[in-house]
Amino acid sequence: MAPTAFLQRGFHMKKYSDLEYLRLSKGQKFAYRLASFFGGIPQALLGLLLGIGRFFKKIGQGIGGEVADLVLTFKNGDWKTRISYLVMGFGSMARGQILRGLLFLLFEAVFIFYMIFAGGHWLSMLPSLGKIGPHEEYNPVLDAYTTVYGDNSFKILLYGVLTIFFIIALIFTWRVNIKQNKISEQILRSGKKLKSGKDDLRSLVDDQFHKTLLALPLTGILIFTVLPIVFMILVAFTNYDGTHDGYNNSLFSWVGLDNFRTMLSWSGSGVNYSATFGEILTWTLIWAFFATFTNYFLGMFVAMMINKKGIRLKKAWRTILVLTIAIPQFISLLYVSKMFAKNGIVNGILMDLGWIKTAIDFWGSTAHSGLLARVMVIVINIWIGIPYLMLIATGILMNIPQDLYESSRIDGANAWQQFSKITLPYMLFITGPYLLTSFTGNMNNFNVIYLLTGGAPTNAAASGAAGSVGFTDLLITWLFKITTGPDSQYYLASVVGILVFVVVAVISLIVYNVLPSIKNEEDFQ
Amino acid sequence: MNNQKRHMGLKASARISNTIIYVLLVVISVVWLIPFICIVLQSFRVENTWQVGYVIPQKWGWDNYIALWNSDFKRRYLNTFIIALVTAALQTVFVLCMSYTLSRFRFKLRAGLMRFMLILGMFPGMLTMIILYRVLKDLGLTQANAVPGLILVYVASSAMGYYVSKGFFDTIPKSLDEAARVDGATRAQVLWKIILPLAKPIVIYTILTAFMGPWGDFVFARYVSFGTSSGMNVAVGMYNWLNLDQIGQRYTMFCAGGVVVAIPVTILFMCLQRYYVEGVTGGAVKG
């Protein structure tokens, strides 16, 4: 691996040239690389901030350009174009492109219809999230007071967001409609003919085929991922929970940054959320680190054993391991979890053998802050993860040019040197991005933790915080416990979710910016 | 002479290291298979239904499988099978559309779209469960109608997992497309007649992973079925069997259920293993 990329970074430290670097001793080289890595972090963060700044600048410039273009198009355009500013698709229809024009017009009509009959209502309620909650009202028929339900905060927030999406879509379509007019005018002025409706339809399976292909998947992502995420981000700024469910018991409303303050303040009244959050975050990072790298190196090791020359039955060994991928995780994990239960098979066998007198409480022992349970989940995760890594490593190992090994053997390299100088760098280089996604994936590895321990053993110090917190709980299982807990503090769950996003995003950005192997993927090939 | 001795030494050391490797591989294989052997053995245990500290049953029989047949398990199995089948078909279409487009077309918002999906993927999916549940409830697709609801949610966002198959499409030379276009084929014809036949491994990989996914989902499925037995999938039902109040009567049934669920998935997987391996290795290398 070329260390030059490391060298160009570095912040407050002496930079060595290639030659100077090569003269350093092994320990010095390592220390230097480490220092470069961490020295690079501030720069990466700075780069990130600058990048965000540039992003907004670009957006600002983009909007400015669009507005200028709109004004110019109106000034220079003919009357058909000008009417299109109000009646979408008019220009297209007037110039003979009936199909396009009708689609634009239809969209505008649907939009106006929707805004009058529904959207306007939802939008006007959005700032308050509902005015009339459920209340008692005298019912003359029954001659008694009955509960009457008022507004529904949940629906207001959901449809309010949807309406905003719709408005953005309209602005976008309106802009496209204006642009169409401008382009049509140019085409007509140059004496060419416009596309007919038939041409348009044909282009949907040809030049514009990507639009056809993307229509369904993107709609799905928009409605089932983007909308829920936007909604849940907004929930973090409300007091939506089990006792404010927005309809049945009481409305919920905007509370600004209160929830973030509760979560991050060092001394909140009552439960200390920030300490709990810090504790769980620390364990989440430790877990992700061990889960990723134990699997990575052990998987590589197993793959190398199977691939070694002279080992027979390669396919059989591989099949045995791969078998475990086929079986749904919820079966294998739940079963393994029960195997290690207090009255489970493992304890039974160990006691039969006379190795232990009393059953070991693998999942319940709180000694040393749940160390036993924590080690167990990492070990069992190895059992889950090695087959995948073995497959991946096998694929990559086969791609390493064999002449590298040949020539190194002629030079007198032993097996360890071959591994550390050829195999490992190659693997790390190729799988750099994979390691990153695997790390962030493990941070959010709900299944392994939830099915094995459910977060147990309970952490008494942190159990006051929403949902009983255990020593093996990750942020993601904590989030789940908060939502399903007795108070269903959705607002808190969404704060945790946002913080998880921030942590994952920051880690990814730093790694992307600091590690050369990811940035210059082609260098090695 | 000397040379020969050295040769012998190398051979001997190779034999020793190979022996060590064989021993290790045997140990690994045993460790990896033990849970599955245990689960199969315990599914035939009839002397009692709760968890015990020994592996070999004292009395063998089909009782647990018969109990399974007489429970709601049948319905849940059918539910899961339908979900898996439909999801496999639709998800494959979604994923292939997305990945092929991102691999072959260069349109204005392409880079932005990819970055946007990358960022979306950083949000924990768990977060969106509450609202997706409420939306499905408003649509009437929960509890007894959970099957179409789950399919809808699984398929709708599935195109975000386009990475592996995009990596595969990237390896198919673009000159093929261009040649066909010169001959007058439309883009759609290129996809249908040229690329898809070449993309068989990745199509099978996508179908396989999409088919296997729904068998394991229980968090969201539990939300959506919400205690209604006829709307559950196998994972939700079997998860409940291991709750404290049921594990005494259902433990061996869980084992039997595990075997019944694992068999079709494992057979399918073993048959198509080659494609799976190709997909996994290719995906990791591409990132």
How many beta-strand runs of chain B?
A: 0
Domain module count of chain A: 3
Tell me the radius of gyration of chain B. Answer: 25 Å
Number of domains of chain B: 1
The main sheet of chain B comes to: none
Q: Tell me, what is the CATH class of chain B?
A: Mainly Alpha
Share of β-strand residues of chain A: under 5%
Fraction of residues in β-strands of chain B: under 5%
Number of helices of chain B: 14
Major interchain interface with per-chain residue totals: A-B, 96 and 87 residues
List low-pLDDT spans of chain A: 1-12, 517-525
Architecture (CATH level 2) name of the largest domain in chain A? Orthogonal Bundle
Overall pLDDT of chain B:
85
Uncertain regions spanning at least 5 consecutive residues of chain B? none
Q: Describe the global form of chain A.
A: globular
**How many separate helices of chain A?**
21
The appropriate CATH architecture of chain B is Orthogonal Bundle
**Class computed from helices, strands and strand pairing of chain B:** mainly alpha
**Span from first to last CA of chain A?**
11 Å
CATH topology-level name of the largest domain in chain A: MetI-like fold
Describe the structure.
The complex is a heterodimer of chains A (about 525) and B (about 290). Chain A is an all-alpha fold and about 525 residues long. Chain A has three domains: about 5-60, no CATH class; about 75-255, no CATH class; about 275-520, MetI-like fold, CATH 1.10.3720. Chain A is built from 21 helices and two strands. Chain A has helices spanning about 5-10, 20-25, 25-75, 80-85, 90-95, 100-125, 155-190, 195-205, 210-235, 260-265, 275-305, 315-325, 330-340, 345-350, 365-400, 400-410, 415-445, 445-450, 475-485, 490-515, 515-520; strands spanning about 135-140, 145-150. In chain A, strands 1-2 form a two-stranded antiparallel ribbon. In chain A, a hairpin with a 4-residue loop joins strand 1 and strand 2. Mean pLDDT of chain A is about 85; it is low at about 1-10 and about 515-525. Chain B has one domain: MetI-like (MetI-like fold, Orthogonal Bundle). In chain B, about 75% of the residues lie in helices and about 0% in strands. Chain B has helices at about 1-45, 65-70, 75-105, 110-120, 130-140, 145-155, 165-170, 175-180, 185-200, 200-215, 220-225, 235-240, 245-270, 275-285. The longest helix of chain B is centred in the N-terminal third of the chain and has 42 residues, at about 1-45. Chain B is globular. The interface between A and B is large, with 96 and 87 residues.
